[in-house]
Write a structure and sequence with these properties.
It contains 14 helices and 19 strands. The chain has about 550 residues and is of the alpha+beta class.
Amino acid sequence: MPQRSQPAMEAFRLSPQQERLWSLHGDASVPFVAWTIVSLRGELDVDAFRGALRDVACRHEILRTNFDHLSEVGTPVQSIDPARLPDVEEHDLRNVARGERNGALHKLLWKTAFREFDLPSGSPFRVLLVRLAEAEHRAMLTLPALCADWSGLSALVGELGDAYARRAGDPVAPRDALQYADVAQWQRELLEEADRPEPALAKRLALKLPWSGTTREGGSFVTGRLSLEVDEPVASRLRDLAGEDASLRSFLLTVWTVLLWRLAGRAPVCVGSLHHGRDLEELERTPGPLAKYLPLAPTLRASMSFRQAWREIGEHDARLAATQHPFSWDRVFDGSDPERNRYPACFDFGRFPAARSVGGVELEVLYQDACIDRSDVRLACRRRGERISTIFEYDAGRISRWDAERLGEQFDVLLRGAVDHPEGRIGGFDVLSRFERRRLVVDFNATRMDVGGDPCIHQVIERQAARHAGKVAVELETERCRYAELNGRANRLARHLRRRGVAEGSLVGICLERSVDMVVSILAVLKAGGAYVPLDPRYPRARI
């Protein structure tokens, strides 16, 4: 991989990932940020921690990078500031009442996570350090997604741990890591040989899901999140069935893809499958944005077993991984339709880094996330030790909280079915949530109505005629009929029908347009003891 030798503060072109993000930054409310929350337990040397932050920023240019347009041509560029330091904010909550401490901490964290960055002239590396107790701190590292992705955050935390260990006297040698501007140049060289656009993939972006076409008030991209833990019995069977992370990832990706396929009426689907871009050893320690959502467009059939779909989707995803570096978004998005300049649904999988002890301090990632692209809904599956959790991140301008909760329940139902019966046909798995099943089976069939013990409608009319004789019972256009009149007319016709032989169990045909006479006829048949049979004059004569 080539490495450049450039003078300080020279402008460089953005990488393909950065250009994609820049194109999505038109809406100021877009939360394209990457952030991680780290627990620090033990006697933290705050001065050494500050020094470690500076060391990491000096080591990685992407943490000192600003973004702006070249005034001559308006092209977005990045420039590296050799003297830029991290923006460190410190708070001490030891004097806050214990019962209020977590609330105060969360308020600080959320305020920091989504505070707007000054991309042209501010520091892109923002750090919040909060002291909770004598031997307990929380550190939040936040960067614009132009500077980091999910795996990049893990690399950054690893680099910070190594730097702190060196400051604390531990002999941890720095590992080789490429500068991001060099990676961007390399990727551009690969793009010169990239495949041309694929119209078939673009068509699949028109996938119709239950919420498709809905745009709620505001219209800007504001995300909502729904977090669900996979039950331990299900997670245990899933680990036994899928094994290592690669197979576990493809299993969960298959559940997600099959669910979307079912919700779309079994139409062809295209899912953005995240590949972290760090398959080369020299890229593992690079904090910059390397991840891409690649278009996974499998061919699914209702007769396929889940195991077969799992195998084919896993093979398809592996082929995508082999082409991730030269991938270009114009293979899928042509830019002509803003509504199709994104995936309907995305998927990613990640394992939280294990806790480690550095310089007498236990360092553990509690949570991290990175919003690096736009979609209607993204399923992020996370593994921490033996635990598996799911995060449904959705465009709140298109999907309601209720829709997201229902989607989470449907995923859980399908996941349980696939774990228990991997040989089952994907077209036959249950995807109804408990709420939906109750609504369809119980609520929609709860048609029983309390009519005070009167078993038939004509008896209800008789009671109403006795109580409210003068009130209107039937109204059709300009014709009105009050309860007393309606009941009287029905009684007279009922007596006539009895004289004509209508008795209990008789079937009496009624061939009338919608009218007061039709209502009178129905009541009369019931009063005579018969059952009415509605007839349509448009029916074939033999049927009438």
